[in-house]
Design brief:
The complex is a heterodimer of chains A (162) and B (440). In chain A, 44% of the residues lie in helices and 11% in strands. With 162 residues, chain A is an alpha+beta fold. Chain A folds into 2 domains: 5-62, NADH-quinone oxidoreductase subunit E (Arc Repressor Mutant, subunit A, Orthogonal Bundle), CATH 1.10.10; 76-148, Glutaredoxin, CATH 3.40.30. In chain A, strands 2-1-3-4 form a 4-stranded mixed beta sheet, with helices on one face. In chain A, helix 1 (5-17) packs antiparallel against helix 2. Chain B has helices at residues 9-13, 21-26, 31-37, 41-52, 64-69, 93-100, 102-115, 130-145, 176-183, 212-224, 226-230, 263-270, 304-309, 329-343, 349-366, 374-383, 401-404, 407-426, 430-439, and strands at 79-84, 120-125, 161-166, 207-211, 233-234, 237-238, 240-247, 253-258, 280-284, 319-324. In chain B, the strands form 3 sheets. Chain B has a 4-stranded parallel beta sheet with strand order 3-2-1-4, with helices on both faces. A 4-stranded mixed beta sheet of chain B has the order 8-7-10-9, with helices on one face. Chain B has a two-stranded antiparallel sheet with strand order 5-6. The longest helix of chain B has 20 residues, at 407-426. The N and C termini of chain B lie far apart (53 Å). The chains are: A alpha+beta (162), B alpha/beta (440).
Amino acid sequence: MPFTPTNLAKAKDLIGRYPVAKSAILPLLHLAQDQDGWVTPEAMVEIAALLELTPAQVLGVCSFYTMFKREPVGRLVVSVCTNVSCLVNGGPELFGSLRDRYLDDDDVHVEEVECLAACDLAPVLQVNYEFHGPVTPDAAAGTIEAYKRGELEPRTVSGSRT
Amino acid sequence: MPETRVVTKRLRDRPDDSWTIDAALATGGYEALRKALVMTPPQIADEQVKASGLRGRGGAGFGTGQKWAFLPKDVFPRYLTVNADEGEPSTFKDRMLIERDPHQLVEGIVISAYAIECHLAFVYIRGEFALGYERLAQAIRDAYDRGFLGTNILGSGFDLELILHRGAGAYIAGDETGLLSSLEGERAMPRIKPPFPAVEGLYAKPTVVNNVETLATVPHIVAHGGDWYAGMGVGKSTGTRIFSVSGHVERPGNYEVELGTTFRELIEGLAGGVRGGRALKFFIPGGASSPWLMPQHLDAPTDMDYVQDELETMLGSGAIMVFDETTDPVLVAWRLARFFAHESCGKCTPCREGSGWIERVLYRMVHGRGRPGDLDLLLDFGDNIVPGLQAPFAQTTICALGPSTMSPVVSLDRWFRPEIEAMLKASPAPAAAAAAAGAS
């Protein structure tokens, strides 16, 4: 959906902060993802109009960055690190277990990611960019379930608190 | 051996509230800024920062004062951009500094901006650092409220606006010029140098890009003097540095020590040694991009020049990864190769294509389908990215990511060739392996 009036005001404020409007493209994509749960084609068209770019230019930038989801991913994005410090501490097993467990759950999107800069917590994952580690597969599933039940308050899928 | 805590002092002393404005002000926060604002910019840049010998803590280790001195005289506006896009595998020091002592960073930014006569600064923070973003955003708001940012800072007449900018998931945005591309609203593709950012950087204006830990050090240099800082460390590696130690160690974590401290003191002392009493097989001394070292190098000093000249690797981002005797080095090399292949931005052909080829050959080696000669094949790929594969390094790519893809491969060749050739000889012939894979 289009930016709400509140978010449209935020968008214009963001654009005004930069010496060149185009610099606001990542902040605006985050804002759209905060609002809609993913970056919709409509959002890219709207952002293009706000920044006087073409929608193709916005898509070109958006598709470069892994945090922007160009299809619905559900409410929770679970990012599991399997880079080397996690590799030797059970990261791949953690990822495999969670991927299989939530394969049919539309609320939970499990993805394998590169180093999250938290190797002292290996194996580590993030739920909507909140760190949890070190975790066993069962403990991780317990945490994800706590988010699902509302006992833990998740950030947006872009990692914001709104 | 104890740590020498300079940039980690506040966050270790006050673990419960080190990130708040109250904790900062109660522990000398912004006192260095007051001191700096009655000095002239050259007094800070030359007599303190340059004299301190401080070198960039992001990876390249370039002299900070020297970098600032590259700004062309009398060209304005100029920008300061903080590289907070920490993504080098196994590095987790900047995230700690941002989350747990954001005011130290803000103070360093204001002093540095004053020293280079800049009035608009940016922090490009890694998108995945949600808590770090919140803590730093709050710190910036508090700094504006207290008059440490904005117009006429502390009555000095100096103005500075600071914009906090979130990335969105791209390792290459941590490259100096990739970061500038991203901040301008483009894909984070590095640019060819020259022109260097100091001459033509953000919006084609003179720009300094400094790492978080580098700028967090600046208030301490101003507070205690460049000579004080230069008195710590060894040779041209002055001062202290945070090392992120992880992998197979008893106590993974960030440890701040004087440069020159040996790898043994970090790995066996502060980090508690290899986990479970196992033997060390190898370690990576400076992030994924650095060639590996072996147990016989444990007593080498963490001296940037010694490590580069004598050991043919680098201290890079200060991330030490430790692997015990049960580790398959080919598996580690493959995972790092996959990282580089995933993060290659695609601009330069040798890196875009070569990183993928390297990953696929290592993958088949990991899975028992390697072929005799695969190690030489990998080196041949590498020769197209880093011609000659030895110092002085040439490269066929714009940025350092391409050459970095070769570090794991060069390390396998340097330290594990006999083990790997024996493994490759024992591998089934390709046709048999393919048949076996198809049948399973």
